UniProtKB/TrEMBL annotation:
It holds the Pfam family GST_C_2. SUPFAM superfamilies: GST C-terminal domain-like, Thioredoxin-like. It comes from the Eukaryota. Gene3D superfamilies: 1.20.1050.10, Glutaredoxin (3.40.30.10). This is GST C-terminal domain-containing protein. Residues 187-335 form the GST C-terminal domain. InterPro entries: Glutathione-S-Trfase_C-like (IPR010987), Glutathione-S-Trfase_C_sf (IPR036282), Glutathione_S-Trfase_N (IPR004045), GST_Omega-like_C (IPR047047), GST_Omega/GSH (IPR016639), Thioredoxin-like_sf (IPR036249). The lineage of its organism: Eukaryota, Metazoa, Spiralia, Lophotrochozoa, Mollusca.
Length: 367
């Protein structure tokens, strides 16, 4: 099914382009993929009231040599993103830091995400396919980010963790400077450690805030929020990601405390090296105090209460180019106006004043 969908082309002509596709449409409709149920989070709740994120559907890759069928070329690929979405945010940061602004174009959807129509293009138009809704690009499904191939008019990939790896390594020939081309956020010698830390940070923090916010039972909420904040009742084993070799370390603490502890001893999650693990964590932490704390009920503590994390976010925010990828208006408006089950009157709260440009102390780790 994903492969057929992947071949699917956009626009009206594509919808009924062939009998096979029309048949696929009917099949999907019969499976319950009705037009009215466009936004997936409304359908992703288990019987226990837990939010269960579905795997992304489109998983092709762009390669520098074109061996995958999608060759890295300047001007060929396009990103569909939302400034509000932490997953899409990762891709914008990579595009910026690698200097790929002229190589990969992008369009941003409006911040409002309604369950019947999904993401919509409003002030920012869809400059490639001229669609009004992101679902028209997908034909049926809907999340951002989307990596679109203008040449074959196909979705290449819609999984942010994979898109950022493509931007990291496959477009180096098109980076404007040698420094940008040499920038490697997933270096070979750190890959297993990055994978290990990504895994628990994804489960407990990146997706943990959603599991807390979208829970529809007290039990599901307690489980997610405890994982995020309170002491874990199980022992966790991970590879300690410091330069100093501690080998395997047993952790009894919660995810945010663990991160705070790591960042009290090293500048980044991987010691002195800024990697994709930091970019992925940043996209969640930068939204935390503004939306997750109140809107998703992750309110035991704020990030500003953790001195190391708070300084760490400010350092990343101040890396040239990163601030351009953070749009707080979209972030606030999106969460508070789109999730009507959480915030029925869609009132956008005033939010704390956060000064991401205030000086940080992370230079204390410089050699
Ligand atoms: N695993 C995906 C998650 C993407 C995702 O859930 N995006 C949200 C926005 S934050 C979305 O578009 N949700 C609407 C939907 O799923 O219909 C990734 O990392 O790329």
């Amino acid at each position: 099914m994903p492969t057929q969908l992947n071949r699917m082309r956009v626009g009206k002509a594509c919808v009924v382009e062939s009998f096979r596709q029309a048949r696929l449409y009917v099949t999907l409709a019969m499976q319950g993929n009705k037009e009215q149920e466009v936004v997936s989070w409304t359908k992703n709740i288990s019987k226990k009231g837990e939010f269960v994120r579905k795997d992304s559907t489109f998983r092709n890759v762009v390669t520098a040599d074109g061996s995958s069928g999608f060759k890295a070329e300047a001007g060929r690929y396009h990103l569909y993103v939302s400034y509000a979405c932490p997953w899409a945010h990762r891709t914008l940061i990579l595009r910026k830091l690698k200097g790929l602004e002229k190589v990969i174009s992008y369009d941003c959807v409006d911040w409002l995400l309604l369950s019947d129509v999904g993401w919509e293009f409003k002030e920012h138009q869809d400059t490639i396919n001229n669609c009004r809704y992101l679902k028209d690009i997908y034909f049926k499904a809907k999340p951002v980010p989307v990596l679109w191939d203008k040449a074959t008019k196909t979705i290449v990939n819609n999984e942010s963790s994979e898109i950022i790896r493509m931007l990291n390594s496959e477009f180096n020939a098109y980076c404007p400077t040698v420094e940008q081309s040499n920038l490697d956020f997933y270096p070979a010698d750190l890959r297993s450690k990055i994978d290990a830390i990504n895994e628990w940070i994804y489960n407990d923090i990146n997706n943990g805030v959603y599991k807390s916010g979208f829970a529809t039972s007290q039990e599901a909420y307690d489980k997610a929020v405890l994982q995020l904040f309170k002491s874990l009742d199980k022992v966790r084993v991970i590879n300690y990601p410091y330069n100093i070799s501690y080998g395997k370390v047993y952790f009894l603490r919660n995810a945010l405390t663990q991160v705070e502890d790591i960042l009290s001893k090293s500048r980044y999650l991987m010691g002195n090296q800024f990697t994709e693990a930091d970019i992925r964590l940043f996209a969640t932490l930068v939204r935390f105090d503004m939306v997750y704390h109140q809107h998703f009920k992750c309110n035991k503590k704020r990030i500003i209460d953790y001195p190391n994390m708070w300084n760490y976010i400010r350092e990343i925010y101040q890396i040239p180019g990163v601030a351009d990828t953070v749009n707080m208006e979209h972030i606030r408006n999106h969460y508070m106006q789109s999730h009507t089950s959480i915030n029925p009157f869609r009132i956008v709260s005033i939010g704390p004043d956060l000064d991401f440009m205030a000086p940080h102390d992370r230079d204390r780790f410089s050699n």
